[in-house]
Design brief:
- The complex is a heterodimer of chains A (about 110) and B (about 120).
- Chain A is about 0% helix and about 55% strand.
- Chain A is an all-beta fold and about 110 residues long.
- In chain A, β9 and β10 form a beta hairpin.
- Chain A is globular and about 40 Å long.
- In chain A, about 40% of the residues are buried.
- Chain B is built from no helices and eleven strands.
- In chain B, strands 2, 4, 5, 6, 9, 10 and 11 form a seven-stranded mixed β-sheet that branches. A four-stranded antiparallel β-sheet of chain B has the order 1-3-8-7, with no helix packed on it.
- Chain B starts with a strand and ends with a strand.
- Classes of the chains: A mainly beta (about 110), B mainly beta (about 120).
- At the A-B interface, β5 and β10 of A face β4, β5 and β10 of B.
Chain lengths: ~110, ~120
C-alpha cells in the first residue's frame, strides 16, 4: 500500500518562508510531485522530482531524498495568494499518482 | 485548448439513483483517471485508463463503473448512489510512459451530493 504523510496545517506571515515536509512509504517510486490547490478549485502542478536534490522554480523549491523517503516544498517570500492546500503525490509505477491528504497553508498579513 | 472538461459541476441525487459524470480531454493524452476528494483524506483514485478500451481499478472502485471507448472521453458511472459517495470528483489526464514528468492535468471538478 501507499503511505504519504504531510502536516495538516501551517500558518506563516507574508514575506516569510515556509517549508512543507512530506514523507512516503510506497511499493515503488517513479517520481514525486507537488500540487497547489486553492479552495474550490482543481489542483495545479508545481514541481516534480525524480532524482535526489533540489529543484528551484522561482519562489518555490522542492527537495527529494529517495533513501529517506522524504521531500519538502519550500515557499519563499510568501504572498497572500499562496494561501492554499499543497498536495504531495508519489508515482509508484508507470502512471498512477497516490496523494497525501494535503497541507493547508494560511498566509497572514 | 479546453484541457480537461468535466460536467456537471454540481449534482444532487437521491439514494439509489444512477448518473454519469462526463470527462473529456483534447490533449491526446493516453492516460485518464478519476479521483474523489473528501475532507482530511486527500485525493483517492477510483478508476484509471491507459488507453482506449483499457480500464483498471484504483484504490476505491466499489460503486463506480468506467469505460473508455475513445481517447478523448472517460465517463464515470454511479450505479446506485449512496450518501457515502457525496464528494468532489476530479478527472485528470496525462501522457503515459515511464520517463519524464507526465504531469497530470485536472478538470475543474464535479461536486456531488447524495441525499
Amino acid at each position: 500500500g501507499q503511505n504519504i504523510d504531510q502536516p495538516t496545517e501551517m500558518t506563516a506571515t507574508e514575506g516569510a518562508i515556509v517549508q512543507i515536509n512530506c514523507t512516503y512509504q510506497t511499493s515503488g517510486f517513479n517520481g514525486l510531485f507537488w500540487y497547489q490547490q486553492h479552495a474550490g478549485e482543481a489542483p495545479t502542478f508545481l514541481s516534480y522530482n525524480v532524482l535526489d536534490g533540489l529543484e528551484e522554480k522561482g519562489r518555490f523549491s522542492s527537495f527529494l531524498s529517495r533513501s529517506k523517503g522524504y521531500s519538502y516544498l519550500l515557499l519563499k517570500e510568501l504572498q497572500m495568494k499562496d494561501s492554499a492546500s499543497y498536495l504531495c503525490a508519489v508515482r509508484d509505477g508507470d502512471y498512477k499518482l497516490s496523494f497525501g491528504a494535503g497541507t493547508t497553508v494560511t498566509v497572514r498579513a | 485548448n479546453a484541457g480537461v472538461t468535466q460536467t456537471p459541476k454540481f449534482q444532487v441525487l437521491k439514494t439509489g439513483q444512477s448518473m454519469t459524470l462526463q470527462c473529456a480531454q483534447d490533449m491526446n493524452h493516453e492516460y485518464m483517471s478519476w479521483y474523489r476528494q473528501d475532507p482530511g483524506m486527500g485525493l483517492r483514485l477510483i478508476h484509471y485508463s491507459v488507453g482506449a478500451g483499457i480500464t483498471d481499478q484504483g484504490e476505491v472502485p466499489n460503486g463506480y463503473n468506467v469505460s473508455r471507448s475513445t481517447t478523448e472521453d472517460f465517463p464515470l458511472r454511479l450505479l446506485s448512489a449512496a450518501p457515502s459517495q457525496t464528494s468532489v470528483y476530479f478527472c485528470a489526464s496525462s501522457y503515459s510512459g515511464v520517463s519524464g514528468a507526465n504531469v497530470l492535468t485536472f478538470g475543474a471538478g464535479s461536486r456531488l451530493t447524495v441525499l
